[in-house]
Design goal:
homodimer, 161 residues, three-stranded antiparallel β-sheet, 66% helix, 8% strand, DNA-binding, MarR/SlyA-like (chains A, B), MarR family winged helix-turn-helix transcriptional regulator (chains A, B)
DNA sequence: ACACCTTCGTTCGAATTTGAACAACAGGAG
DNA sequence: CTCCTGTTGTTCAAATTCGAACGAAGGTGT
């Protein structure tokens, strides 16, 4: 099904809608840029690598299946394979084979990985706070969480469909 | 100045703050993924290339200085050089030297570029609408625009500083 | 047991992105 | 004019990203 019926004039974005969309895109790019730089300089980690450590750290045994981790990160499987290999070389993450499924692979946080995360987290969180969280009011944060949560949920749905 | 005074416990994100931050990151990644796929399939353009066309189209003479364009796009200068070259090969953008500054280069939208944008825009806008704009209420959009606008503005400030 | 379709993670090649280094020029201060 | 500092766009090597293709298993129905 085409996103727009051919022949009919599409509904363009009005001023407010455009402002929201541009704001989202711009803020996203600027934030990523900043966080990337800060993490790389202070901890030698890319934002992607940091996020891998975060998700593993939050998981039951500090380990997650590759596919599950890729979904949480919203990245491609091949991209994750690459980054896990990098983290493995740094000694921050290890691979374990899954007992119940020969094909399965667990990415597992090492002690060094936990330590690296413990060391990187404060600076990262402080910057997220400074650039985003503390700039917004409580109400704005609530709306953002609710709205973007809904957006994400819907995106995840027909992504699997 | 260190982001966090060494020795003091950093202010972690509480539940709501974390929800807002995760929602932002996740929605951003999922959206980019989708838009990238749609644009590439329907128009053979990457999201970056599409945005270049949009910004040029909105500019006075359909042309902008490389540096200015890079800032609007929130990308590196070298990255822009690469993409403009790609668009030039496709015939959608041309380069013109600046009269008042020998070093300067204008990226200029060609007629084909305008046509390509005219053709790509409806599908892109429709998807942005479906995935983000139409998911949110008028109030949520207003809050998002105001909040992320402020965030972007601040980020742009000490980026130049 | 068999065929069939799905899932798992990796590998591969191509495209993209970035920061640093660079050469050429602009714009003043002296 | 001359030196000095900042800007402009490009080039370069390195890192990262993605999708498609792949081999190897899992799981199901017959």
């Amino acid at each position: 099904m085409p996103s727009t019926p051919p022949g009919s004039e599409p509904r363009w974005l009005d001023h407010d809608e455009m402002a929201a969309w541009r704001g989202f895109v711009t803020a996203s790019n600027l934030l990523n840029r900043r966080l990337e730089r800060q993490l790389k300089e202070d901890s030698g980690l890319s934002h992607t690598q940091y996020e891998i450590l975060v998700h593993l750290s939050a998981a039951p045994a500090g380990s997650l299946r590759m596919t599950e981790l890729a979904e949480k990160l919203v990245t491609s499987k091949s991209g994750l394979t690459y980054q896990v290999t990098q983290l493995e070389r740094m000694g921050l993450v290890g691979r374990r084979s899954c007992p119940s499924d020969v094909r399965g692979v667990f990415a597992e946080l090492t002690d060094e990985g936990r330590e690296a995360l413990r060391q990187a987290a404060p600076g990262h969180v402080a910057l997220v706070r400074e650039l985003l969280i503390d700039v917004l009011t409580r109400e704005q944060l609530a709306v953002l969480a609710a709205g973007l949560g809904e957006v994400s949920a819907r995106l995840r749905l027909d992504d699997g469909a």
